[in-house]
Amino acid sequence: MTQKIEKPLSKLIGLIIKKLESGVDIYDSEELRDALSLLETFISVELRKKIANGNMKV
Question: In terms of pTM, does the model score above 0.90?
């Protein structure tokens, strides 16, 4: 399961870094906003899973 997540997640983070390093303004790049939104959603879901499983306390 981890490998299924790692590759797309790695690509997503790579895209975000590439866009930010190129000096693209977040307000001018829909692609960058979408990528950041996907990353935010992923982090939120993973944190909720860990909290629900008792692996992390709030």
Answer: no
pLDDT tens by residue, 19-53: 899 998 888 889 889 999 999 999 999 889 888 88
55: three-class secondary structure by DSSP: coil
42 CB-near residues (< 8 Å, 6+ apart)? 9, 12
Q: Which two tokens stand for residue 14?
A: 């790579």
Nearest CA to 13 among 45, 40, 49, 44? 40
SS3 category, 47: helix
